[in-house]
Amino acid sequence: MEEEGGTSCQGQRVLPYSKCLEHLSEGELHSYLSALHPGSDIEHRDTVISSRVLRRILASITDPADERPTFGTARFDSAIFPSDVNFERSHFRGLAVFEDAHFERSANFARVDFDRNADFRQSKFESKASYAGSTFGRSARFEDVVFVGLVAMNEATFKGAARFNRAKFNERSFFTQAKFHQQASFERVKFDRDSEFSNIDFARGAQFRRSTFEGSAWFGGCKFGGAATFVGTQFNGLLRMERCTFSGPAQFEQARMGGNGEFQGANFKSAARFNGVNFVGQAQFQKVNFAETVSFRLSTFTGAATFSGAVFGGMVGLDSAIFDSGAKFTETSFPAATHLGPIVCLGTLHWSGAEFSRPITIELAAPRVRFRRTRFDSTATIKARYAAIDFTDAALSSPVVVAAHPVCFTTTGGAGRKDVDESRLSAQGISEVSSLISVRGVDVSHLVLTDVSLVDCEFSGAVQLDQIHLQGDYRFPEAPTRWRRLLGVPLLRSTRRVTLAEEQHWRASRSRASRDGWKEKENFNSDDFTAKPRNLAATYRELRKSLEDSKNEPDAADFYYGEMEMRRHDETRPTAERLLLTLYWAISGYGLRAIRAFVALFIALFLASSSIMLLGLPSNSQSPRTTVSVTHGAIALETQTPPPSLSPNIMDRVSWSRFEKATQENLNAIFFRRSATSLTTLGVYIQMVARLTIPTLFVLGVLAIRNRVKR
Asked: Which residues contact 5 (CB under 8 A, 6 or more apart)?
């Protein structure tokens, strides 16, 4: 179409004229507008419409009853609006088509009613666009729309399907308190700035598949009546979904959350899937209710993950989930879960205060795991790798097995079973063997430990320690082997024995014990409490009974040694008892150190022989003398043995032959109960003491050997 002056124009001509709306003369325009009335069909495709002309059109179709511009069918396909556009409070009774329209300045559609379909596909809004409070009676189509400026759709109502697929929001967008009666589709939408969807009612769910949020995304308080799909969605800023209600399935598979993901107080009434999600920031799921199955399989949590106070009402999938900065499941509830993991955590994994109602198996690989005040209402099996596990004040109503898993965990993938990635844990140099660091305040009669290291475990305060079940290759800490010196000369060497970690901590807390190799308390242990010898003696006694019941006599003997050591160091006991225990320790190691007992035996034998040589073996001859006397023809014979006497010169009493003879006399008297030589009175008493002391030391040495080899 060619206008005056030969200028080409693509605009829809206004009948009966051959010109578009923008090129009508004033008279022609007045004639055209005079024919319009409320409810008239308007068709101005490919037309440039100025704000002046638009205002006159709106004035021509304004209904005097409600003072609202009222359109029948409105066709503005590919129209160009070079200046501000104000359709506020307009009423579109028929189709409203703005497909491929170009709004070069602000566009105001606030409080507009679209009774039929509203089509804005491929339109471009160069400045602010407002649909605040508008009502879309049927479908609202905004596919491939470009919003360069701010977008306000807060409190809008979409009664039909709302489609924003592939739209682009370059500035902030507001959908606060909007209502979507049918499914809302925002697939592959790009939000360059903050977007707010707070308190929206998505009656039939919403699709945000593969959309991108470069700024913050607020969905707080939203209600999703149907499926909420965020599969492959990129949240590069903050995501807030606190207090959201998901009545249908919630799908976040393969999504990426570059900022914090906040779901505090959300309610998932149906299945929730977070498989393969990458949580770069913090993942906050405090007090979330998962009524049915929830899965975080293959998800990665780079920031801290918090599930404190959450309720997992169905099955929980954490297969191959990786927590880089620790995870908190404190005060959580698992009324239906039967399996968790395998979980990989590079920080501390908190289960403190959690409740497990059904029989459950937990598989985890983490450097630190806390089950403080955790409640197990049924049987549980905890398979752990690399973990230092804290069970302080846990409540065990049924048998709970804690086992060190010997090989890498495996999980089922698309190509069958494969190993879980534990490479970053092994790179930290942590031992694969899991350990228990505390069972204080626990009734351990239901606790079964298999292949678990107890090198750092604190037992003080545990209940029924004599009924704890120790199986497999469990390990206790060993006392340091060192030489005891006197005036700088090494005289005695400490013997290897197993101990409790708490004895190590107590000895390390003393002034010079740390220099002797005793292990100080690690910072991951439960608290600053250090058990006293009185408490440790009782702990050793109860654990010794458990070891004896399991036929582990060598370790039970070491625990008896530890018990006696703690009694010897207990300052609340009488001094006489402690002195007696010190003597018992010195001469035989409480009947458990064979070498010490035999050394004491030889020393006692040497002292006894030397004493008898000097004080008991007579120097004079002991041969009897017979005297013959004749009286009145009667012959009388009298035989007398001279009394034993010692040479006044003490050096005459010292000789090898006398020492050898004294030794023989002692051995004969001790083992064969006879003495061939008369001794001095003092010698007799010395031999009596030797008869009591030396057999006792011999028996202690034999018993010590037996305790080391007894099975």
From this structure: none
* pLDDT digits 0-9 by tens, 59-102: 999 999 999 999 999 999 999 999 999 999 999 999 999 999 99
Tokens 């005891």, residue located: 484
pLDDT class of 704 with cuts at 50, 70, 90 = confident
What is the average pLDDT value for the chain, to the nearest integer?
88
Bridge partners of 174, per DSSP, are 152, 196
**Phi, psi angles (nearest 5°) of residue 564:** -65, -35
Weakest mean pLDDT among 74-88, 227-241, 690-704: 690-704
Cα–Cα distance, 75 to 92 (Å, whole number): 11
Cα(366)–Cα(360) distance, rounded to whole angstroms? 18
pLDDT at residue 673, rounded to an integer: 62
**Distances 48 to 36, 83, 664 between C-alpha atoms, Å:** 19, 10, 133
As a whole number of angstroms, the distance between CA 666 and CA 617 comes to: 11
The conformational region for residue 62 under phi > 0 = left, psi -120 to 50 = alpha, else beta, is beta
Closest CA to 306 of 250, 261, 336, 244: 261
526: helix, strand or coil:
coil
In contact, 191 and 171? CB cutoff 8 Å:
no
Q: pLDDT tens digit string along 583-597?
A: 888 888 888 888 888
The H or E element containing residue 272 is strand 272-273
Compute how many other C-beta atoms are within 10 angstroms of the C-beta atom of residue 579.
Answer: 11
Secondary structure of the chain: what % helix, strand, coil (to 5)? 25, 30, 50
pLDDT tier at 3, thresholds 50, 70, 90: very low
Tell me which of 24-38, 81-95, 484-498, 552-566 is least confident.
Answer: 484-498
pLDDT bucket at 539, cuts 50 / 70 / 90: very high
Non-local CB neighbours of 27 within 8 Å, separated by 6+ positions = none
Report the SS3 class of residue 259.
Answer: coil
For the record, the structure tokens of 39 come out as 């409810």
Mapped onto helix, strand or coil, the DSSP state of residue 705 is: helix
Cβ neighbours of residue 346 under 8 Å, at least 6 residues apart?
A: 322, 323, 324, 325, 326, 366, 367, 424, 425, 428
Distant-in-sequence contacts of 199-206, Cβ < 8 A, 24+ apart: 200/175, 200/176, 201/225, 202/226, 202/228, 203/179, 204/180, 205/229, 205/248, 206/180
Q: Which residues contact residue 606 at a Cβ distance below 8 angstroms, ignoring those fewer than 6 apart?
A: none
Nearest-angstrom CA–CA distance, 459 and 328 = 25
The pTM of this model reads 0.82
- String of b and e for 29-57 (b: at least 16 CB within 10 Å)? beebbeebebeeebbbbbbbbeeebbeeb
